[in-house]
Structures are given as structure tokens and as C-alpha cells.
Amino acid sequence: MNDNNIKVVNSKKRERMNDSMNLFNSIETYFNSLIYSNSIPGLIRNYLPGFKNLSEKFRKNNKWLFYNFLEIIKQRRKEIALMKDNEPINSSDLLDILLTINTPRDANGYGFGFDNEKSMTDHEILATILDIEIGGRDPTASTFCFTVYNICKNPGVLQRLREEIVEILGNDFLRPITFEDLNKFKYLEAIIKETQRIIPLNPLIPRQSLVKTTLNGHIIEKDTPIWLHQEKLHKDKISWYEPEKFIPDRFYHNNIEAINKEKNAFIPWCDGIIRNCPGKKMALVILKCLLILLFRKYNIELVDKISPAKVMYFSMNRSFDLKVNLKKIENFY
């Protein structure tokens, strides 16, 4: 390969990387636009100077995002249509899975045995991917950082996590982590839940009343927008013992507090009547894998062992400026 060919290849790689970054940045802007639309009344968003300009910026971004995502979906749909019948589909690729659901190429069998099931349209696939991407990327990164902070701040928690890692995976650092392994990490799951309770990503959750009701003496009309204060729920002294303390055992095994807590006192995934966070399962898998790999191989210490976790709020609570020292572990014991 000569120098000119190398330059062309590198140029294409940079172009693909830039396209990916533009797409990821656009998704984050889209997420912020959802919070913005739910938080600011339409009269202010659309007519007040400053807000009007921001609304226009969000509209342009969302139009660009939807167009480019749909082009990717349409292109892949065409490619699959041109494939030979015996040519395999990538069963680990989300887009391929969504494009082939309830089609003859469905890896789970055509229609899952139900005659009335239909395949997904391009717009349905777009909405599904955006739901999963929003729920499984930025929030997951912040939850990961908050969890690392809480583990490092509590040596007893760190010790028990290391013991669980050794118990399930042994001392072989090269042993792959299987999905079955992840289901066994009950204490790690309790750590993640307690982190979500202490530092909820969404302090305020938008809801709408389905019927006319009375709440603490206040009449709430049907279809009234309501904001739930998630952080207040998660630190309610009636529902939680010493709510300001980080105690993963609240959620470990059959802990009485976790079982008998007041209904809806813990809603990290914004639980609703019909659905909750669509990225929940993917986010938990990513969180568990990252935390296991990190604490399996490294000793981690906070650079600042005194200050509370640094939280920045814009559309959600986000971790920033988390500084740690890493040292590779030779042996656990």
C-alpha cells in the first residue's frame, strides 16, 4: 500500500469517527431538548427571546438527528433485503435485530408464533434506538462514577465487593465474565441500587394525573402535569433508616427495609404504570461489567478523600471531576 492509499484510508477513518461523534453529541442534545420541553411552558419556549433561540437550536438538531438515523436504518434495510437467504444476520447487532423482528429472518423464529405480530417500521426502530441510547449511555456513565466514588469512600463495602468477585470469578483475572456470572453479583447490585438512592440521576420526574384526585388537601385535576421529587422520596426518613448514610445492605438479599419500604419510595428507573426506563437492562449489564473489571484488577483511591461527590445538574445529575489513583493488583490476598 503506497502513501496515497494510506492517506485515503486514514481520511475515511477520521470521517467515520467524526460522523459517530456528531451523532453521539446530537443524541445528547436531543435528550436535553426533552427535559427542556417538559420543564419550560410552550408560551415561553416559543415566544420569549433567548428561549425562542434555544428552541430553534433544539429543533434543528432533532431534525438533523432523525434524518441521519433514518438514513442509516433505510440503508441497512436495503442491504438486508439484498442478502441471500442463507446469509446470516448479525444477531448481536441491535439494528439488525430490530430490522428482522417478525420477519422470515427473525433469529427467534418468524412472528414468535403469533400470526398478528408485525415487523417494525423505520420510525418505530428510530424511537426504540433513541430510547435505549438515551437510557444506556450518559446516565450509565454518571451512575458508574457515583458508584466508584461510594465504593472508594466505604472500605468495608469495597472489601465485601472484592470477596464477592473472588467467590464468583476466582483469582484468574483473564477468566471471561458471562451473563450467568452477572446474575450472581447480588452485593454489587445492592451497591448500585444504594448509589441510585443516594444520588438519583433525575431529581425531578414529570408525570400527569390520570384522574381527578386530592393530594395533601390539594385538588389535582385530571391531566394536570405533576413533578415528583425523586431525591426527597429516596431520602424520606419514614421509609429509610438513616437515609443520608450509604448502606448497600438495605437492598441485599431479603433485607426487611427493602421488602417493607413504602411503595414507590425507591424509583431509580422512573417507574410508571405501563413502562419504566427502556435502557434499564442494558445499563445494569454495562455497570456491572465495568465495575467488576475495574475493581477486579485495580486498587482505586480517591484523590480527594474528604469532599462529597461532585455533581453538576443540567437535565440530570451528572458526575464531574472525579479524580482517582489507580494501581494494578497483583493478587487479591
From TrEMBL:
Annotated keywords: Heme, Iron, Metal-binding
Cofactors, names only: heme
Binding site for heme: 277
Record flagged with keyword Cell membrane: no
Pfam families per record: p450
Coiled coil: none
Molecular function via GO: heme binding; iron ion binding; monooxygenase activity; oxidoreductase activity, acting on paired donors, with incorporation or reduction of molecular oxygen
Keyword Heme set for record: yes
Domain of life: Eukaryota
This protein's name: Cytochrome P450
